[in-house]
Amino acid sequence: MSAVTPRAEVDTRFSMPGATAPPWEDVQDIVENAELYWISTVHPEGRPHVTPLLAVWVDDALYFCTGPEERKAKNLALNPECVLTTGRNELNDGIDVVVEGSAVRVDDDAKLQRLAVTYEAKYGPGWRFEARDGLFHHSSGAGHALVFEVAPVTVFGFRKGEYSQTKYRF
Fold it and tell me: Which residues belong to any copy of the Pyridoxamine 5'-phosphate oxidase N-terminal domain (predicted)?
């Protein structure tokens, strides 16, 4: 359960008459239990960069890892603002979620170890990491990764079927 309950605002311009906001707990559950997310960052030349990734929801924030030489890591080093999205690829069912915030590097080994345990619990032994020297090190020896935290500033929930668009402000 979230320690933070954001303020929900239904945008009536983009919602069915009488639409109500999905409870934050339902939206949080979608974010927490999604298997795949899409991250959008900004390339140094100003164009968008979008790529899929895995993430975990811990203590009211999303966490993801990436190699230091990957485009998203380079983009975030110059501009930490990003968007993570998840949902269902269906027109008339589910809720799509957009999380806006700033990616902050996590380099505390104790916190990284806790996140490593969460990654493995969610994604299985193929995603086992050792936390040391401020990085995730893959158990296979395949390399290391930076870890980022995105605490939501704004979350959008797009309910399909009985359509509503809700903004959750933190």
Answer: 25-153
Residue 2 in any domain: the answer is no
* Pairwise CA distance, residues 151 & 103, whole Å: 8
**In the chain, alpha helices (H):** 24-33, 71-78, 109-123
Nearest to 154 by CA among 9, 54, 47, 40: 9
CA–CA distance, 119 with 127 (Å, rounded to integer): 6
Q: What is the CATH number of the domain that holds 74?
A: 2.30.110.10
Which residue is associated with the tokens 């309950």?
A: 5
Instruction: Give SS3 for 37.
Output: strand
Any domain includes 150: yes
Examine residue 1 and state whether it is found in any structural domain, yes or no. no
- Calculate mean pLDDT across residues 147-165: 96
Mean pLDDT of the region 37-64: 97
Structural domain count of the chain: 1
CA neighbours within 13 Å on the CB side: how many for 129?
A: 31
* pLDDT band at 1; cut points 50, 70, 90: low
What's the mean pLDDT when you consider all of the chain? Answer: 96
Over residues 110-133, mean pLDDT: 97
For residue 49, give the 3-state DSSP assignment: strand
The helix/strand/coil state of 28 is helix
In which domain, by residue range, is 45 found? 7-169
